[in-house]
Design a protein that fits this description.
8-stranded mixed sheet; 4 helices; Aminopeptidase
Length: 178
C-alpha cells in the first residue's frame, strides 16, 4: 500500500507506521542483538503477533507518535522514529529511534530522522520539552542528541539491565525556546 509522506526530508521521508510495515524483516530488527544493543528490546523474542499488537495500539491512542523511516531512493522501510509517552498537559515527550536496516548505519539517516522528528514535535505538536535516555556507551545516539542541542541532564546509575549486566544511562533534554 502506498502512503504519502508525513514529513519529507533529503534522504528519507517519515510516515505513520502501519500494519503493512509488520513484515518478517521488521520483526527481525527487534530480535537482532546489534540493532538492539542499546535499548530494552531483544530481552525476549519478538513476534509478528507482538508487532501487530503494538501497531494496533498506536492507532487507538494519542500518546505515541511512531513514524516509519523510508529511504527515498529505494522506498524501503529502514527504521522508526518516535515521540512517545507524550504528556499533553506538560507538553513533554520522550524521543526514540531505531534504525533496523544495518546497511543504512553511518549515512546520516539517524541524524536526519531525529532532526525531522524533533522539529515536528516543537513546531507542529507544540511540545515544550523533548527528552531521551540512552546508555552511556551509545556514542552514536549521544552524538545525535548533542548535535541537536539536547543538554545532558544527568546519569542514572545502573538503570538498565541488559545482557546480564547493569548499565548507566544518560538523560538528555531539549527545551523549545521559541
Amino acid at each position: 500500500m502506498y502512503m504519502r509522506s508525513f514529513i519529507e526530508g533529503t534522504q528519507i521521508d517519515l510516515r505513520p507506521l502501519t500494519m503493512d510495515d509488520v513484515k518478517e524483516g521488521y520483526v527481525n530488527w527487534f530480535n537482532d542483538s546489534a540493532v538492539c544493543a542499546f535499548n530494552r528490546h531483544h530481552a525476549f523474542p519478538y513476534t509478528e503477533a507482538l508487532a501487530r499488537q503494538y501497531v494496533e495500539g498506536l492507532q487507538t491512542g494519542n500518546q505515541n507518535l511512531v513514524l516509519a523511516i523510508i529511504d527515498k531512493a529505494s522506498g524501503r522501510h529502514i527504521g522508526n522514529v518516535s515521540l512517545q509517552a507524550i504528556d499533553w498537559m506538560s507538553r513533554n515527550a520522550e524521543f526514540a529511534i531505531i534504525l533496523g536496516e544495518r546497511e543504512w548505519w553511518g549515512k546520516g539517516i539517524g541524524a536526519e530522522a531525529s532532526k525531522m522528528m524533533v522539529e515536528h514535535g516543537f513546531k507542529v505538536l507544540n511540545l515544550h520539552r523533548i527528552y531521551c535516555f540512552t546508555p552511556t556507551a551509545n556514542v552514536p545516539m549521544r552524538k545525535i542528541a548533542e548535535r541537536l542541542g539536547f543538554e545532558e541532564e544527568g546519569i542514572q546509575k545502573e538503570a538498565l539491565y541488559k545482557d546480564g549486566m547493569f548499565h548507566d544511562v544518560v538523560a538528555y533534554g531539549l527545551i523549545n525556546k521559541q
